[in-house]
Structures are given as C-alpha cells and as structure tokens.
Request: fold
Amino acid sequence: MREFLAETHFAVMTTINKDGSPQLTVMWYELQGNEIMLNTKQGRQKIHNLRRDPRIGFIIEAGYRYLALYGKATLIEDQALAQEDVRRLAIRYLGEVEGEARVLAEYQKEARITVRMQLERISALGFR
Reply:
C-alpha cells in the first residue's frame, strides 16, 4: 500500500460541510511517514470545514485497486513550510520545469495552508 501511495495518483478528499453533507475535492498529496500531506489555498471551503470538524476522508483509485483513508487533519499555516510543501507537490505532479513555473506564476502569490492527515483507519481493495 505504501508503494501505491508513493505513486503519483490524484486523490479525492472529503470534508464535512456545516449542514452535514460531504464536500469533495480532487487533490495532490504526498505520503510522509505515516501521514498524508496536502496543500491548498487559504480560504477554501475544505479549510473552513476542517477548522470546524477535523475529520477527513481520502480515497485513491487505480482501476480495480483503491485505498480509502480516514483520519483527522492538522492545519499548518506557516507560510515558509506551506510554500515549500506546495512546491514539492507541484514538482511531484507536474515535473520540475512546469512545477517550478506554476509555483512562480501562481502559488507563490497565494496564502497557502498545509493539511496533514493523521491516519486512523484504512480500507483497501486489490492489495495483498
């Protein structure tokens, strides 16, 4: 499962809206030790939801294999760390040249926030 998480897949993150309905977002991620690191622009709905209720769900699928991860989120607003995290994610998903260009053109100009997901439960299909 760690090898699968280390591959470059898109994930769908779920947070809980104020009315109890799910809020879904396609996200970049990186496995760091036993946590999942994500990064987003401050002010987005998912951040409002996580401030109110830190429960988070996360699913990654590839054909007939998937991992569903559940846990609690910690929000990190330190801009030096958040900018380095989004840079790492941009390079992971876009490659070095395009990733660095996106950081300079867009992400560096934004207030960013890192979301660290502490894993509490995993559900899997297609893994031994």
User: Anything to note?
Assistant: The beta strands are 11-16, 22-27, 30-32, 35-41, 55-62, 65-76, 112-125. The mean pLDDT is 96. The longest strand covers residues 112-125.
